Amino acid sequence: MTTTTPAATVRPEDERLSPGRTLGYGLQHILAMFGGVISVPLIIGGAAGLSGPELTLLVASGLFLSGAATILQTLGVPFLGAQLPLVQGISFAAVSTMTAIIGSTGGGTEGLRHVYGAIVVAAVVGFVIAPFFARIVRFFPPVVTGTIITVIGLSLMPVAARWITGQEMITVDGERVPNESFGNLRDIGLAMFTLAVVLVLAKIKATSRLAVLLGLVVGTVAALIIGRSSFSALGDASILGFPTPFAFGMPMFEVGAIISMTIVVLVIMVETTADILAVGEVVGTKVDSRRVADGLRADMLSSAVAPVFNTFPATAFAQNVGLVALTGIKSRFAVAAGGAVLLLLGLSPVLAGVVNLIPGPVLGGAGIVLFGTVAASGVRTLSKVDYQGNNNLVIVAVALAFGVIPVVVPTFWDQFPTWFVTIAHSGISAAAIVSVLLNLFFNVLLPGRPKDPSVIAAAPPLMVQAEEARVLADGGTVPDDMEQPTKAAPTV
């Protein structure tokens, strides 16, 4: 007697496509996130003062790890990998923190080694707590995560500006001198041209998903034409080459950096959890706590191994979740094929070196959209928060302020102890700590909706007047003490 496996037991994400379609859809996923993967190594490499072959190594290493992490997450092994169509890439969430660590630990490759040490410890902590993370997620409601994501985008905006203008001061013969080409019209014009190209391509349905990547290509071609870039950036890069483990030296460990990075890892785990749940809903498959834990363990293992291969923490890319919803392609094997392409790109320094053709102004023009999108995503999350009859507005206001302070006044915390400076100088860390603590204070330790939230959390007068008008129109009454209007009782 032959038994037939019920159709219900076949998971949508296990769909097998033809080899051509598998590779094609995989490439589509890679193109949708490629700009994000290369941006983080470029930012951190620039902060550490790297250039040429060293910067190429960072980019190649990021591609290599992203590909390997994607394969692990999609195909999975016991206890590792959610086995969902999730693309893993280098996380933006850690950028401002890593930049702060580099600046507070001597800069250069030494600062980079402190970053790697902090990542290793923080990722191991994340790996250990992954099975219990469901208990921690409740401390990261939308009012917290939305604030943090908004600060991430705002913190990265100065990076885009510096890509366009260059540094005000440069080192010449060991001395710091003003940069004569700082903010010149040619560079600003090139950045605005790139931005315009990205916006036009975003308007066209067929190219909207690739607008940033295609904008970088068009902007780079324009830079080559006007002499702002040249193929000499490729240097003597080899066609094939395995990333050298610990190419910048062994990791170094500093308490403040580790604490700061651990906070970032918690944020990354929140983002990954949200993406796992979101893609499960899009695909139409069951995602239980065990599957979430497997996905988080894969995420954290990839992040812990990242410093060995000279790169940074990995996370699930949310834009690829949207791509699954848009295309309806649910096969995790297609995404795994894309991961294999990323891995191969990471094994070819000459292909990774092509990124060095992209001049700073072109990156900056695209960065305005890229980083602005991160901030806008945070605003979108905050728009779903309930601000009526509570102090959530206070949480957002104070946390945003602490997150932006290091951006507008970088030396604000310089008189404090070094370990504190490392944490507070990162906008993401400061916003995370403040928002979590305030959420605990207002919404967890003292649960319930206060009858009279603080005056700074009250609705603006126009909103109150609008609510009064709506209630009166429904036949209700407005109390004299200006508290919440009372609706009329429903007519039976």
From TrEMBL:
Membrane topology per the entry is: Multi-pass membrane protein
Q: Where in the cell is it found?
A: Cell membrane
What are the protein's GO molecular function terms? xanthine transmembrane transporter activity
Protein name per Swiss-Prot or TrEMBL: Purine permease
Keyword Transport (UniProt): yes
Q: Tell me its family.
A: Belongs to the nucleobase:cation symporter-2 (NCS2) (TC 2.A.40) family.
Spell out the InterPro entries in the cross-references.
NCS2, UacT-like, Xan_ur_permease
Taken from the UniProt entry, a GO cellular component term is: plasma membrane
Looking at the UniProt entry, the stretches that span the membrane are 30-50, 57-80, 86-103, 115-137, 143-164, 185-204, 210-227, 248-270, 333-352, 358-379, 391-413, 419-442
The record's annotation in PANTHER family points to: PURINE PERMEASE C1399.01C-RELATED, URIC ACID TRANSPORTER UACT
Q: What's the superkingdom here?
A: Bacteria
Q: What is the lineage of its organism?
A: Bacteria, Bacillati, Actinomycetota, Actinomycetes, Micrococcales
UniProtKB keywords: Cell membrane, Membrane, Transmembrane, Transmembrane helix, Transport
PROSITE patterns to which the protein is assigned, alphabetical: XANTH_URACIL_PERMASE (PS01116)
